[in-house]
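Known limitations

Files may contain more than one protein. Parsers should not assume a single record per file. Below, a two-record file is shown to illustrate correct handling: read the sequence, read the token line, then continue until end of file.
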Amino acid sequence: MKVLKSTLAIVTAAAVLGVSGFAQAGATLDAVQKKGFVQCGVSDGLPGFSVPDATGKILGIDADVCRAVAAAIFGDATKVKFSQLNAKERFTALQSGEIDILSRNTTMTSSRDAGMGLKFPGFITYYDGVGFLVNNKLGVKSAKELDGATICIQAGTTTELNVSDYFRANNLKYTPITFDTSDESAKSLESGRCDVLTSDKSQLYAQRSKLASPKDYVVLPETISKEPLGPVVRNGDDEWLAIVRWVGYAMLNAEEAGITSKNVEEQAKSTKNPDVARLLGADGEYGKDLKVKKDWVVQIVKQVGNYGEVFERNLGKNTPLEIDRGLNALWTNGGIQYAPPVR
């Protein structure tokens, strides 16, 4: 899988939305099928979400969402190429048609969903919230003790507003230092240029795992915002939006039904459960509505995994990030992950 580093100039959304042709909605699936792969925008290197391994293969839950889309469309999860994008580049790359889907730890907000020519399909890859990472030697146990702190923040993110709101609401002062990439922010914390690194908590755990001495740093207990992270597509192409949405829902439904990468083929052949039969294409033609083959869910789960498998492989307790499922557990297990049925 080829990894592309975006060199797109940052232009205004208004200029981008004026682009004709491919950037206009309605033809994404046709274009993807014609070129033979999904072009997926991911982060510029965030462990657990999207980061290249020693061979250059992009690993992470965001990357796996794109692989699942490729599995549904082509029956082959390898038919995806990745563009690594920083926070400033990501929306421009999607608006212009440089990428087909943005799957890059991106928060769903009203202004992004309604005012930028973009659309969030509604499948939330990861429920998150902004927090703070500090060196233990700073001696603080709560965000309320950060009055006067110098804080590293990644530019072009919702974190900037969230931190400003939190400090103003709590009558605290701080000095922000912004960076274009998450790695630059983390290195500045490690060097002592700033007292605190702030971002979504999942990103803080990921960045901590990359520091020279991760155990010297702690994520403070406060979560100061709601950050539902999920894939993004261009507005107006309902066909493509539906595919991305139901790929995510299929992964959740598979986990809830106990369908895994190891048993999915057998379940498709032998299940007596009507819901499972519909999900796996053994009953009905529900893939036809999405313009995919009837075994689209089988291919997703077989090649990529159900949601729980993807979570545990990239973020779970047996990874360097050691993240609990928490809110991202299924609704049946005390979390809020819930998917409508395939029927």
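...continuing to the second record:
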Amino acid sequence: MAFLHLLLEKLGDGPACLVSVARTEGSVPRERGAWMAVFADALVGTIGGGHVEFQAIAEARRRLAGGDAGPLLRRYALGPSLGQCCGGVMHLRFEPITRADGPRLQQRLAPRRTPVALFGGGHVGYALAQVLAPLPLALTWIDSRDGIFPAVVPQGVVCEHSEPVHDAVPGLAAGSRVLIMSFSHAEDLDVVAACLRRQRAQGDLPFIGLIGSRTKWATFRRRLQERGFTAGELAQVTCPIGVPGIAGKQPEVIAVAVAAQLLQTQEEERTG
């Protein structure tokens, strides 16, 4: 989203050539839909770097200098001739764009953003908000305490006060990934229970992640079972959270591990 904002702003200074990945074959550095905007004196975005990008920039600037009109589709084989050993093929589309194309580009290039609900404005929550904000995610940051959110939050992050905090769960967007890390174990338990009740009714929360140790989860399992939740329902909760093998406890380390885990769940959903 930051690249798109920069592109729209930069188009006020002059035209550009939009280079987008129209189609791919085999192993390539970027996926279909990836793009970069080439200006006479600047670049916004990337189609993967390397020599193929270098050649694409040269072609885009040639078209800008010559005033070539209309789109062009070119095939680039990522082999020895390009000095790249990916072995795949990228079909790149070149098209002139100006400030007048802004509304169309905003609709076309805006990434599909997966909703994420982050419960907890503490140190790990703050680190996570910083890490998640640039990713193709729509982040809602939720806490029950007044004045907990920083004065400046990353672009696109929506802060929400909810008291009690678990009352926010019914209003989450369908398909939300939920991350639970409030200041209180009692609040965490109530949010998990609210998520499981929603799952029982709607089944539309593909990931429910709870920060904490295996000991914490063992205690939560017992308490949730006492509230009537089954083993199958409890199996929908991931605790601890974060990709395995990362042992660091610093908030920033945890944030990176959790962000990687969320991206894994997106990929599994896409390919599964």
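Parsers that stop after the first record will miss the second one. For reference, the second record is described as follows. Residues 114-271 form a domain with the Rossmann fold fold (CATH 3.40.50.720).
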